[in-house]
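Today's session is about reading a structure prediction critically. Students often jump straight to the picture, but the first step is always the sequence itself: look for stretches that repeat, for charged clusters, for runs of hydrophobic residues. Only then move on to the predicted structure, which in these notes is written as discrete structure tokens rather than atom positions. Here is the chain we will use throughout the hour.
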Amino acid sequence: MEVFRSLDDVPPHFGPSAVTVGKFDGVHIGHRAVIARLKTTAAARGLVSAIVTFDRNPLAVLRPEMCPASLISVDQKLELLAATDPDATLVVEFDPPFSKLSPDEFVTRVLVDALHAEVVLVGKDFRFGAGGAGTVDVLRELGSEHGFEVILIDDVTVPGEGRRTSSTWIRELLDEGRVREAAELLGALPTIRGVVVHGHARGRVLGYPTANMSPDVEGFVPADGVYAAWLTARGVRYPAAVSVGNNPTFGGVPEKQVEAHAIDANFDIYDDTVEISFVEYVRAMQKFPGADELAEQMGRDEDRIRVILGVAPKSEP
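Below is the predicted structure for this chain, in token form.
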């Protein structure tokens, strides 16, 4: 997949193309269905398949007080989009000047002049241009003027739920700790990425050394609690018990601290960038009378997490 980080990066003779446009936050199963249709359409017509997305949620510029936290970073998004194998992705800088483009200017600059679109695939609620003035009907009118066809893509709904797959729904699930259900909508485990920093070494003293994540993580951190997860460090995946929260047994722990204990592994990964992929919620955060009671509970947590992840029981010393 070619990646263009601005309109100026697109080669002059790119295309002709089939294009879809969206935030693609999370690259969930609905997005994947759109991309699959994009690729099928492009192949049938001998076109290049191209995705247009943005370097931030447009609400961050238009209505920052209403902008939700992103499910993934731009780099995570590009990695997930690359796995769907389109020909190219254009990341547009959604800054104040771009937000003021009229619908006609958006179509001319992005779809026509840069990507030479012959087909544009969008959902029924697609909006574009300053003030969201561009609707699907406006896009069709501009398509007739500029020589591209507009194909409307149906929403992807979950059987038995009657609700379309959306980034909003996934955020709701993660805010409730329902990572397994979120994974079903994402088509992948919800994953965060960040640098391992030094903590208070309490876990090591308790017999459960942890990798403490920097607060500046990429991705959406789920609700406070203990999770079964996979920790990926230096290209190797380890089963892990992950704690999210402020560890109420001890004082001075930041809100939303993420700590991962790699099961059956002990290594120094300080300053390394690692990934944590959440599999299942295990329990809520609790305040214990002391360190011994916490250590006993951590042992029970690990036993349960071994079962969830299919890891052999802990061997007796």
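Discussion point for the tutorial: The longest strand covers residues 273-283.
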